[in-house]
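Deliverable D5.2: sample structural annotation.
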Amino acid sequence: MFEEIRFNKIERLPKYVFAAVNEIKMAARRAGEDIIDFSMGNPDGPAPKPIIDKLIEAAKKPKNHGYSASKGIYKLRLAICNWYERRYGVALDPETEAVATMGSKEGYVHLVHAVTNPGDVAIVPGPTYPIHSYAFILAGGSVHNFKLDFDEYYEVDEEKFFKNLHSALNEAFPKPKFLVVNFPHNPSTATVTPEFYKELVKIAKKERFYIISDIAYADLTYDGYKTPSILEVDGAKDVAVESFTLSKSYNMAGWRVGFMVGNERLIGALQKIKSWIDYGMFTPIQIAATVALDYHEDEVEKIRLKYEKRRDVLVESFNKAGWEIVKPKATMFVWAKIPKEFEHLGSLEFSKKLLTDAKVAVSPGVGFGEFGEGWVRIALIENEKRIRQAARNIKKFLNNR
């Protein structure tokens, strides 16, 4: 009888593609095999010591162990706004234009739930981090995708982007209410210019849709590239919000600290839904996050340099092994085309074969949607010695095909 009860939201979610690779990986490890794992963007180092020390200090104070503020303590929201002022010259009101979230993923999902009506349409370029699409599906909305085109250096083809955006605005029904952008991009590492956001804000105002911008990898940039913010554009706060996380920049993934800033109406909706759903992060974590944003940006540079070195070693060693890859300008990932001789397999089967035969785990591109097919995502989460070992394994794998 109970089997007849349907869970429609869950049934709208597909099988998690990454689970297939993960199952093989875990079985191999249980069998004692050494798997070099590039499959998940999970930082491998601890948070910087000064931030941990502040957490411990704050946790020793009894007053910090009660319920916290769901939208974030005031000092954290102020630190968030000061961070934007220093970095982008953007003035924000900590009361009405900023909210602290339990990681940027949680904040994004809660925002989407707060502002999406049944049947609302969101435009999400693909490939895409899965939750960028499926948050809307879980909220009762629908998603219109178009391909994100970029050149050989992973720079977005802005002319094609806006052409595809206009087509989506004309084709989708009902008219799209939201557009999701994520630059530097996960999974493709693609980047955009400040001019991109100027044009995007102009279109959003004309066509009357909101923009949700995710800059989770803003700090992890290389070769002179600097991540722009949509909020730098005059009038952007009329149509846009932006999210960030301390997960990657500060090695604080498990701490679950992020934030959303920008349009007062959308931020107000997020603050309201959070007031019903949660009591906010553990206060000592918020205090430590405040100190991180206010005083320890120097620690971010150390982490950035670590990823830059790993990127250089991986691209150089994999190319020598016979897998041609171009250096990305941002993120903690490499977005690599499947070697030509394996294109017929598709990204999932190639990833399985790479794991089984070379003992190297990567994420199949199809897990990021149909436009990710033909690619794999390689996370820079193994040290340089392990990266070089992976390259040796891959060289043998390619030579024995």
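Annotation notes: The CA atoms of residues 296 and 319 lie 36 Å apart. The first strand starts at residue 36 and ends at 37.
The annotation will be released with the project's public dataset once the embargo ends.
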